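Predict the 3D structure for this chain.
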Amino acid sequence: MAKSGSRKAYVIITWSKIVKQIKTAAIFIYAALTVPILLAPALPLFIVSLFGMKKPVSWIVYRLAQIWGRSLIAITGCRVTVEGTEHIPRKGSVCFTCNHEGIFDIVLALAYIGRPFGFIAKKELALIPLLNIWILILGGLFIDRKNIRKAVKTINLGIQKIQKGGGMLIFPEGTRSKGRGLLPFRSGAIKLATNSLAPIVPVAISGSSEVFEKDFCLHSAALRLVFCPPIITADMPPDDRRHKLADEVRGIIETTLNRGEKGT
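Done. Predicted structure below.
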């Protein structure tokens, strides 16, 4: 009887893993197939924007990305709690500064920020066909952290985008924490905001590492996305922007994450 029971438990566990693997494969296939579908209207619009009408085109392209992001969330079955959307400037320069738990973070950002924005992506993503084009169309930039000169050039391009009234999203930790808690910010990680004098909106994401990073299988996790009140960097003394701002932003994100863990 004991052996029979253990066999049944083994079969159930094995079948559960197979189902999870199938779901995981399905979501990646869906994401891979929908990117070229989205590029079909987005790429011509992007070309048109090079000759004018950049703002309306950026909104159309963002809405396509938002639909894509929300469809992925729906398919995964994740339950998302969003707070503080009233703190998001609907127009003008802004730098979203977010902790980086997992690969699902950018999906959440696309789904809920509610306005066009670009983001800084690691250079390896520039090698992935179609996805690299999609990132560029959204206003993203690729950074090579091992090459200081190229990295500075990328940061300067991001600063220019913000100064022209755009939005950029950065992950100052520089890598995914994968559930290890908030990591230290990389040196100079928020130069996009400090050098452009743009308002900073700290963003705290919790639960996203549970979606894929846990065991590389899809999990329908409970996710929390909090947009904190903006920090007006233009009103800060230059020394505070250079030496204290990063710690202030990190402290806000850490406090928000801790508050979520305590359920308050």
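The CA atoms of residues 172 and 189 lie 5 Å apart.
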